[in-house]
Amino acid sequence: MEVYPPDDSIDYVEFGAMLWRRRRLIAWVGGVLILLFLLLAIFKKPSYGYTTNIQLGVTVAQDGTLTPLLSPQTAAGLLQSKYIPDAMYQYESQHNIDLRTLKTTADADSESPTATITCNAAGERAKACIAVEKAAAANFVKDNTRAVAAIRAKLQANLDTAKLNLTALQD
Q1: Distance CA 96, CA 89 (A)
Q2: Is 58 helix (H, G, I), strand (E, B) or coil?
Q3: Cβ atoms within 10 Å, residue 48
């Protein structure tokens, strides 16, 4: 009696015949899966994610490099500790709703002068997400616009002093 090595090839005709014999089982399993996914899609509450990017101002340092007026990490820290909680409190008091379950975070981008606010919510809380992000970003920008104006005024004063010194040196 001769022993043949096992055949590793696939007989496609035999495989097709096996699938054809089990077509009802395959159709039944496929139908059940489709029905489960449809039910999941119908009854699952929609979830929304919102992101707001805040571009931080930069100034030119004496060596010619651009430096942010406020570091992205500091901006994210301020947003997380002050502006987002303030905006959430304001929204809660205006709409009489508890937002403790609202997931709102602020992150910093180490590669560019950008701070990002991210909010995820489901159902009716999606409106709260939008309102909290807008209010936090608007208050952050408003407060920091004052700081930028002060820096700009200081730089303008330094420029005026430098012009006077240059004029005096030229005379």
Answers
A1: 10
A2: strand
A3: 14
Instruction: Round to whole Å and give the CA distance between 105 and 90.
Output: 17
pLDDT digits (tens, 9 = 90+) for 16-31: 999 999 999 999 999 9
50 closest CA partner among 141, 143, 128:
128
Coil, strand or helix: which one is 30? helix
Place of tokens 């996914």: 37
Which 3 state secondary structure label does DSSP give 55? strand
pTM attached to this predicted model: 0.61
Please tell me the total number of residues recorded for the chain in this structure: 171
User: Which token pair is 144?
Assistant: 């920091």
**Encoding tokens for residue 60?**
């030119």
d(CA 75, CA 80): 9
Query: Could you give the 3-state DSSP secondary structure of residue 112?
Result: coil
Q: pLDDT per residue over 48-106, tens digit each?
A: 788 888 888 777 777 877 777 778 888 888 888 999 999 989 998 888 888 777 788 88
